[in-house]
Amino acid sequence: MKLKCFLVEQWMTDHENDCRYNLTDTCVEPLSISQLEQLTDCSLMDTIASMPLDYGPIVGSDDLRQSILSLYTTGDIDNIAITQGTNNANELVMMTLLKAGDHIISMTPTYQQFYELPAMLGCSYDLVSLDEENGWKADVESFIALINNQTKMIILNSPNNPTGTSFDDEWLKTLIDACRERQIYILIDEIYRGLADKTPSSIADLYEYGIATASLSKLYSVAGLRIGWIKASHQVIDNINQMRNYTIISTGLLSDFLGTHVLKNKELILARSRAIVNQNKDNLKAYLTHEKRLSCVIPEDGTVGFLHYHFDMDSTTLAETLQKETGIFFVPGSCFDKEYHLRIGFTRDPEMTLAGLKRLSQWMDEHHY
Ligand SMILES: Cc1ncc(COP(=O)(O)O)c(C=O)c1O
């Protein structure tokens, strides 16, 4: 197996701890346990202090799986497998269902895991390009045209990192109709789904071979709990739970308990996230009306967008230089194989984010861009 660098994750590892203006993060401002206690008006520390730091129920507590099920419209708790974040959820799905010689279809730009991990397993892949001119959308027929006899899975991200693209129900149903007869799985990483007023259905509620993955990392501000999940048919979940025995065993009692608490208070936490994300989007919209060296398709859902800069510099050099000279932290488009772009996050303190954008304009002035 040939290991390729996971560019966006490596960039985050190398750059995220040394910045003044974090303009790129995907996780809404992380919560501490005491902030969580305050926000949900509940004391957690006594329970945590006396909790054995044990594995906990191996497949996840019924309470946790029931809380996750409340995010969907169909199924029972045996349709849910608990994972260590979405990254591990995607990995478990791919390791369990794909084999060398299979073909998968994904898109670009997107999260590199969706095609690199299948490639490492010996699969071939085709990618459909998202079209910025068309609001970073892609024609469903472009995916259908790539289906062949070896196609085992279509792997999407909705809303997408980094473009914010969402696929609506009509789009998904057309794709499902083209996949059903050949029993092609549709795996959608839905980690950013659920913030907008009108969120499309989960693929796991629409299609018997649909598999949804998600976690508490982004919209729920508790990435460090490493609670993620997979929603799929009983058969797929049974197989994945077999695979889990070889890989993670469990996510642990402490995370199970806190994750359940977060989901039981999801409305309060999502309201906080929505307020931060919407304020940042409004600020960016207003800022771009008078900053013509930049443009952005500001998505309706999700926590990130893909900022287009209109001057000639490669994105790696730009991101490195900005961080060094101003403390502004962006992930460059090069990490998504797309130049002249920077990933912008709507996740952090709106005042800091706006100050960072103003500093960016000042920097472009100083360098005569
Ligand atoms: C599309 C996508 N999937 C998965 C992950 C990893 O998330 P988690 O913390 O749930 O493993 C990320 C993180 O940036 C992401 O953007």
Helix content: 40-55%
The helix/strand order is HEHHHEHEHEHEHEHEEHHHEEHEEEH
CATH fold label of the largest domain: Aspartate Aminotransferase, domain 2
Bound molecules: pyridoxal-5'-phosphate
Which value, in Å, is the CA radius of gyration? 21 Å
CATH architecture annotation of the largest domain: 3-Layer(aba) Sandwich
Task: Output the structural class.
Answer: alpha/beta
- The proportion of residues in beta strands is 15-25%
Residue runs with pLDDT of under 50 for 5 or more positions:
none
What gap, in angstroms, lies between the N and C termini? Answer: 44 Å
How are the strands of the largest sheet arranged? 2-8-7-6-5-3-4
Q: Identify the CATH homologous superfamily of the largest domain.
A: Type I PLP-dependent aspartate aminotransferase-like (Major domain)
Oligomer: single chain
Secondary structure blueprint with pairings:
Blueprint: H1 7-15, E1 21-22, H2 33-40, H3 45-49, H4 62-69, E2 80-83, H5 85-97, E3 103-108, H6 113-120, E4 124-129, H7 140-144, E5 151-157, H8 169-179, E6 185-189, H9 203-206, E7 210-215, E8 228-231, H10 234-246, H11 253-264, H12 266-289, E9 294-296, E10 304-309, H13 315-326, E11 328-329, E12 331-332, E13 341-345, H14 350-366
Parallel strand pairs: 1-11, 3-4, 3-5, 5-6, 6-7
Antiparallel strand pairs: 2-8, 7-8, 9-10, 10-13, 12-13
Helix pairs in contact: 4-11, 5-6, 5-10, 12-14
This protein binds pyridoxal-5'-phosphate.
